[in-house]
Amino acid sequence: MPDRPVQSADMMPPTAELAQGQVMGRVSWQFQPPAGSEVNAWLCHTGGCVALSGPRGYTEALTGIAADSVLYFQFALQDSQQRTMTLRGLQVIVNHHGSTLKPTRPVERIRTL
User: Fold this and answer.
1) Per-residue pLDDT tens listing for the chain (113 residues)
2) Cα-Cα-Cα-Cα dihedral of 96, 101, 102, 107, to 10°?
3) pTM
C-alpha cells in the first residue's frame, strides 16, 4: 500500500572490525525496480532516513555517522493504483575513514534482528 512503507533486511559491514572506529563518508546505493515502475525510497539508520532521488545514486547526508551503524532501505509505492512489486539488486557501498572525534561517553548500539 502506498501509505505503508516496507523495510529491507538490515545491512551491516561484512566484519565488525572493518568499520570499527570509522565514520561514514559518501554512501552509494542502487536497487532495481521492475521496468516502468517507480517507488519512493529512503536509506535509513537508527537516527533517521534520507530520501533517495532514484534507483541509483549517492549521498553525503550520512557523513560522520559511525561506519558500523546498521543501514536499511525503506520503500513505499507512489500511488494507490500500483500493485505489489519486487525490487532486486539492493546494494549499498559505504566509503569510510577514521574519525578525528573522540566520544565523550560510551555509545550503546541496539541491533535489530
Assistant:
1) 566 789 999 998 888 788 889 999 999 999 999 888 889 999 999 999 999 999 999 999 999 999 999 999 999 988 766 677 889 999 999 999 887 544 433 333 333 32
2) -60
3) 0.80
